[in-house]
Amino acid sequence: MPDARSDATSTALRICPLCEATCGLTLTLSGTRVTGARGDRDDVFSQGFICPKGASFGEVDADPDRLRAPLVRIDGVLREATWTEAFDLIAARVRPLVEEYGPDSVGIVLGNPNVHTMAGALYPPLLIGALRTRNLFTASTLDQMPKHVSSGLLFGDPFAIPVPDLDRTAHLLMLGANPLDSNGSLCTAPDFPGRLKALRRRGGTLTVVDPRRTRTAALADRHVAIRPGADALFLAALAHTLFEEDLTDLGTLAAHVEGVDEVRAAVREFTPEAVADACDLDPATIREVARELAAAPSAAVYGRMGSSTVEYGTLANWLVDVLNVLTGNLDRAGGALFPLSATAPAPRPAGPGRGFALGRWSSRVSGHPEAKGELPTAALAEEIETPGEGRIRAVITVAANPVLSAPDGRRLDGALDSLDFMVAVDPYLNETTRHADVVLPPPPPSQSAHFDFAFNGLAVRNQARFTPAAVPLDEGRMDECEIHARLILAVSGMHGAPPSAVDDLAVDTALAKAVTQQHSPLYGADPAEQARLLSGGSGPERRLDLMLRLGPYDLGLDDLRAAPHGVDLGPLEPRVPQVLKTRSGRIELLPAPIAADLPRLRAALDAGRDALVLVGRRHLRSNNSWLHNVPSLNGGSNRCTLQVHPADADRLGLADGKPARISSAGGALDVEVEVTDAVRHGVVSLPHGWGHDRPGTRLTVAAGRPGVNVNQLLDGSRLDPLSGTAVLNGFPVDVAPLP
Ligand SMILES: Nc1nc2c(c(=O)[nH]1)N[C@H]1C(S)=C(S)[C@@H](COP(=O)(O)OP(=O)(O)OC[C@H]3O[C@@H](n4cnc5c(=O)[nH]c(N)nc54)[C@H](O)[C@@H]3O)O[C@H]1N2
Ligand SMILES: Nc1nc2c(c(=O)[nH]1)N[C@H]1C(S)=C(S)[C@@H](COP(=O)(O)OP(=O)(O)OC[C@H]3O[C@@H](n4cnc5c(=O)[nH]c(N)nc54)[C@H](O)[C@@H]3O)O[C@H]1N2
Ligand code: SF4
Ligand SMILES: [Mo]
């Protein structure tokens, strides 16, 4: 490993943690400083692809605003402290709250970067288990929870998420996703843009459904500029058309599906004519899209943010896979398949499972049902503010910035400020962490080992890659895994125990279970001996090694170390019925909670139409709320402007480059107008993650171009009821020019 005292140049491999594409990077180092990054041409998965974010890895890594030491609030002021002082304070403050007010008095908030770190994959489940709180909030209810709920209901497993077989499909119907800027989501595919171009080069077709003419839509054979929020209606009409024109063909899947006739009846009213007005589409177009889907030799339907964070998000996500099933494309090459990651438990034999339960408990104040053990992040503020038994008095945020990423940040600001105690595991002093009593900063990514626990299970090709830390930990730094382990000990009454105790317990628990499971590769083995055999220099590496050994491939951590550019495990393969965990052991195509939500969708057919609604957008040189502090990623076309169609601009008296006031239920914002026909009429677009104008933060570059927080327009009351996911796309707004 490079030496901090030397300035000799060298290179090191690092999987990029900045988006779901998980590209392999080759870092150039001067001593221990990252001076550059290029795509690793030998990476088995990304084969040299890199985007501007990855290319700025060195700048992201070396941001001078990254916190170097823990911060502890003393007399109201956050000051640098030692790790011992920080964990002592956590231990002294959290346990008494739990003892006096119960486990639910501590809320846990997990943000998106947890899926981009080993620590975030391995420890939060243990933290939740240690605290036994039901007040768990994550970025999932601002994102993909509708997919988890839909998969839970259809397949019995919320993590069984079919991904489009990008490299082999003949037809991709994509809704509410813009992978040319996002690089893909719930579909891990380095160089997604190149893979879409390859699809078209081999004669395949791409249809993009999006109210904006995105860079992805510009690449498509067909762009369907739907009215926001109407995807579920559009998809129901596609299903209706397949039935009406006798175009369904489940193929070999038929033996594993129940409820097809029930779905046929359920979509009867959703004719293309009936949904046309709500979608603002020609019925003939809807029929053509359905026919093309049915006629394609293979096809995949794929939906993301724009069909998820909307009023009918779970219904839309359910319909995506209903269409994959009805056209026989689920679980076949070229369709939508279930990945099998190297750290997934070895497959158990096919057969009935325990099924997926929804709403096992509800949130205290508004009675929102839990989904996958989580409550809606949009309800976090009220759970802190509302007095009574079960009120949240302390919050632990890990890699989360809900003040910007969730609805009504101003209210959340006030709520976090009123807490008895708050801990943040975060590299920055930002809009959220400024409220903390203790901030525990992880090291920059070059100093952490990496393995993608989550994204390998969502990847278009099975593969496994591990990159050790590229450079050693700086003096005074603590590995994020150790931070998490010490945090767990501090809040669970074991403060002072060695952090390895947490990993040992996890290893022992997993081994004790595995040796009793007949389908496990370690069935019947001696757990103590297996624990001794584990390879890895640290607790988390031993845990990774164990998960690999318990997994479906004959792999261990040493194999991954011996293959620094990764191990290719082949294309996705059919997994039905083994993957199913429903009570019936079959795909349950019309689950009861979905059927119960359909009347709401029927009502939407005749509901009034809003004159102007807002949708979000992402920019290639941005990532949610936390990359605006990197100079090369902030500026140019990455700006927080309100995009308005020329016809709407005329109607409302708005002019390009001029200020306007936009308002909705949660408040009003002053923005700069950008007139462009890339948004359809009746739709305006404002990106999220901006609004870096609050005092008490340390984000020098971001504060210089703060932008506005789009989520201030929301009051937190608009949710997809089945998943508790906030409606971030397709809500009504008013816009007026400012003098
Ligand atoms: N209006 C609107 N709102 C949205 C969205 C939208 O499209 N429109 N998108 C939603 C989506 S999809 C998501 S996923 C959420 C994201 O919501 P969040 O996860 O709350 O927000 P992020 O901006 O990703 O912030 C992550 C935090 O993690 C910190 N961080 C960065 N790297 C690390 C690390 O290595 N370790 C730790 N411990 N912390 C780290 C950052 O400093 C930051 O504080 O936002 C949602 N909000
Ligand atoms: N560069 C960059 N990359 C990122 C991120 C980032 O912030 N920046 N964030 C990462 C994260 S956390 C995620 S979850 C992914 C998200 O990845 P994507 O889902 O691909 O990203 P979005 O840009 O949010 O795309 C949503 C699209 O839906 C459209 N849309 C809005 N409303 C509707 C609707 O009602 N119907 C339809 N059909 N379309 C609609 C929007 O116009 C937008 O083009 O990106 C990840 N990658
Ligand atoms: S596409 Fe994503 S993973 Fe690849 S270099 Fe860019 S930010 Fe990193
Ligand atoms: Mo996300």
Question: Could you characterize the architecture of this molecule?
Answer:
- The chain is α/β, with parallel strands linked by helices and 739 residues long.
- Among the domains are: 71-143 and 363-440, Rossmann fold (3-Layer(aba) Sandwich); 150-337 and 576-603, Dimethylsulfoxide Reductase, domain 2 (3-Layer(aba) Sandwich), CATH 3.40.228.10; 610-737, Barwin-like endoglucanases (Beta Barrel), CATH 2.40.40.20.
- 31% of the residues lie in helices and 17% in strands.
- It has a seven-stranded mixed β-sheet with strand order 5-4-17-16-15-6-7, with helices on one face.
- Helix 9 links the parallel strand 10 and strand 11.
- Helix 6 crosses helix 15 and helix 10 (231-244) packs across helix 13 (283-295).
- The longest helix has 19 residues, at 83-101.
- The radius of gyration is 25 Å and the shape is globular.
- The termini are far apart.
- The mean pLDDT is 97.
- The structure holds ligand MGD (2 copies), iron/sulfur cluster and molybdenum atom.
In short:
This protein is of the alpha/beta class.
Strand order of the largest sheet: 5-4-17-16-15-6-7
Number of helices: 26
The beta-strand count equals 31
* CATH architectural arrangement of the domain at 150-337 and 576-603: 3-Layer(aba) Sandwich
Instruction: Supply Rg.
Output: 25 Å
Report the principal-axis shape: globular
Bound molecules: ligand MGD, iron/sulfur cluster, molybdenum atom
Biggest sheet record: 7 strands, mixed
Report the mean per-residue pLDDT as an integer.
97
